[in-house]
Every structure is written in structure tokens, then in C-alpha cells.
Amino acid sequence: MKPIELDLLLELQLAPGITARVVTADSMTVAHVHLQKGAILAEHKHINEQVVNVIEGELELTVNGEPHRLTPGKVMVLPGNVPHSGRAITDVRIIDVFHPVREDFRQTSFAGYKD
Amino acid sequence: MKPIELDLLLELQLAPGITARVVTADSMTVAHVHLQKGAILAEHKHINEQVVNVIEGELELTVNGEPHRLTPGKVMVLPGNVPHSGRAITDVRIIDVFHPVREDFRQTSFAGYKD
User: What is the dihedral of CA A75, A81, A87, A93, to 10 degrees?
Assistant: First the structure.
């Protein structure tokens, strides 16, 4: 058992200006995500429960059509299958955690969220 | 669905100098943990898989008797039931995520990890 060095992981491009380094554990996926200021994550949903933890910056997270401003110290829990989208007000770093594992994030060929 | 403000949550005292604010989702527990320099988390184990994400500082995490130095950008995945302990080399902030939910962390009366 060794620590995983995020810098050595392949970087997933989730959308223009949005990249992630993803740790796939046995039961959870942990995504260290960077969003450039102005970057937009199109509305999407997935079966996985998600917890969004903002580490740096300010993120507008729209959930079921309702916008929320997330900054460090605010955490959003998204049940599975809830439509959500994001917009980076500033450069943003977040840690997203998912259960069950995001099978699509295991693939290095993730095509990104599309409008 | 609203963001959770960590500052409004009750702070759990995990051990002397180690506090956590804990978000219990449906399938996961997310603990925002602060360790004061020098603080020690005694060896313990739990059924829950755990992923340790260091946000700030330097943590010595001993897993199965083997010490590892964790700094931002290093992530440790701990399978369930693996004995582990921690020592804060500096002040440290980490985000620990667990599946299944840490039932003991639901309680505001968590008595702390003991030697």
C-alpha cells in the first residue's frame, strides 16, 4: 500500500477548462478537479451519489435548476440522478467524491460532458 | 437541497488536537479534519474503506506498521479493517472520505480514538 501521487495520474479532460485527476478506490471515486475561471460543466446526471468539496475559489453549482454559490467551507451533497451543472466564478479546485465508483472515470478516453 | 456550511456543524474531537466537521451523506461520510502540529491519532481500524486527501501540511500516516509521508497531492486509499495511525508533522488539513457511512461519526458523543 503506497500513497498515490496525483501528478503521476493521467489527467481527464471533463470539459474545456476542466480537468481532473481521479483516484478509483474499491467503493468510491475521488476526483481532484481544477476548473479555470469561466469554465462551464454542462448539465448532466449520474446514478452515483456525489459530495462536492470546494478547496479553493468560487463555484456556481446549479442543482435541479437552482443555483448555489460554493466556496471553501461549503459542501454540497447530490443524491444520485439529480441534474446539475457548474460554472467557475474564479479558478476553482474541488474534491468530488462518488459512490458507487464512477465506472466512466476509469477510462482514459472520457469524452467530456457535452451540452 | 442546500449547501452545508461546515462552520455550522458541531465539531467532533477525534483525539487531543484533532477535530473534524463531518458530512454524512446517504452512502458516504466526508470528514474535514484539522490536526494541530504534533497531534497523534492512535492506531485504529474500521470496516469502512477510507480515502485520505491531504489539503495542507504534512501527515505521517502509518499503515500496517509502515509509515508514509503525505503532503498535498498525495492520496492514500485504505481498505476496510486495515490498522492505521497518524501524526501531524505540521498543522494539517485533510479530507477523509468513507464508505459505508461512519455510523460512529453520526454521534456527537464520539469519544475519540484511544490508545
Answer: 40
d(CA B57, CA B37): 9
* Mutation site for A-interface testing, chosen from B9, B28, B74, B78 by largest number of A Cβ within 10 Å: B28
ipTM of the complex: 0.94
How far, in Å, CA of A37 to CA of A89, rounded? 6
- Smallest CA–CA distance, residue B112 to chain A, in Å, is 23
Return the pLDDT at B45.
Answer: 96
Q: Inspect the interface and report whether the beta carbons of A25 and B53 lie closer than 8 Å.
A: no
CB nearest to A28's CB, from B23, B28, B74? B28
Q: Look at A75 and B28 and tell me if their CB atoms are within 8 Å.
A: no
Domains, chain B: 11-102 (2.60.120.10)
Nearest CA in chain A to B80: A26
What's the predicted TM-score (pTM) here? Answer: 0.94
Q: How far apart are CA B91 and CA B70, in angstroms?
A: 12
Looking at residue B23, what is its pLDDT?
A: 96
Along chain A (115 residues), what's the average pLDDT of each consecutive run of 10 residues?
Answer: 92 95 96 98 97 98 97 97 98 98 79 61
